[in-house]
Amino acid sequence: MEPNREEKFCKESRATKILRVFPSDLNDHNTMFGGKLMAYIDDVASISAERHARAECVTASTDSVDFLLPIREGHSVCLTSYVTSTGRSSMEVFVKVVAEHLRTGERMIAATAFLTFVALGPDGRPVPVPKVIPESPEEKKLHETAPARAEARKRHREQSKLLAEHLRPDRLWEMGN
Ligand SMILES: CC(C)(COP(=O)(O)OP(=O)(O)OC[C@H]1O[C@@H](n2cnc3c(N)ncnc32)[C@H](O)[C@@H]1OP(=O)(O)O)[C@@H](O)C(=O)NCCC(=O)NCCS
């Protein structure tokens, strides 16, 4: 087992997933189905979170998945993720989705996403995670801009909690007016 460390490099949590786009991955616009890509994003990001924390991790939130360009049949899709910044028990994970046209070799950033994972101890309560040391220009940029995203996330979480107070778990057809 790895010894617990107070700081870890971004590259230590890096995870990669490469897939070929098949006809069964497409939606009715003949581009890759967004829900399928989101599942892959959560999957690869969860590996980065657990590599960083070396503890059980759960997805606390996905702040954004930006679909920048359509992905089509004949492309390969490469998802890369790593932890960009941490709080006490939470980790921001960045995912970059690069599509490659397999015949021409043209590559493009097709989507990006930020997710937050929380590390849990054996009792299911949040536990501390190591800090992050960014090295490359991309890692440094994402690390520097993380506090602003964390602040926006905190505001969003407060608003979601307030909104949840007005929601009921009833099925729609059981709700009165
Ligand atoms: C995520 C979860 C463990 C947080 O538990 P909690 O009792 O609210 O914990 P706390 O309030 O002590 O927060 C713990 C950390 O999570 C962060 N956090 C909690 N909810 C968050 C959210 N929606 N978005 C971002 N961060 C969040 C807090 O900011 C805190 O970060 P820090 O330790 O770095 O300061 C809990 O809400 C949970 O289990 N959610 C369900 C997770 C799940 O089922 N995911 C899908 C399948 S993996």
Strand content: 35-45%
Number of strands: 7
Distance between the termini: 57 Å
Please tell me how large the radius of gyration is.
18 Å
Coarse morphology: globular
> What is the CATH C level class, in words?
Alpha Beta
The amount of helix comes to 25-40%
Q: What is the CATH homologous superfamily assignment?
A: Hotdog Thioesterase
Ligand species: coenzyme A
Within the largest sheet, what's the order of strands?
Answer: 2-4-5-6-3
Major sheet details: 5 strands, antiparallel
Order of helices and strands: EEHEEEEEH
The number of distinct structural domains comes to: 1
- The appropriate CATH architecture is Roll
How would you briefly describe this protein structure?
It is globular and about 50 Å long. The N and C termini lie far apart (57 Å). 27% of the residues lie in helices and 35% in strands.
Commentary on this structure:
The strands form two sheets. A five-stranded antiparallel sheet has the order 2-4-5-6-3. It has a two-stranded parallel ribbon with strand order 1-7. The protein has a single domain, classed as Thiol Ester Dehydrase, Chain A. β4 and β5 form a beta hairpin. With 177 residues, the chain is α+β, with helices and mostly antiparallel strands. The longest helix is centred in the last third of the chain and has 28 residues. It is built from two helices and seven strands; from the N terminus they run ββαβββββα. It is globular and about 50 Å long. The model has no long low-confidence stretch (mean pLDDT 94). Coenzyme A binds next to β3, β6 and α2. Keywords: Hydrolase.
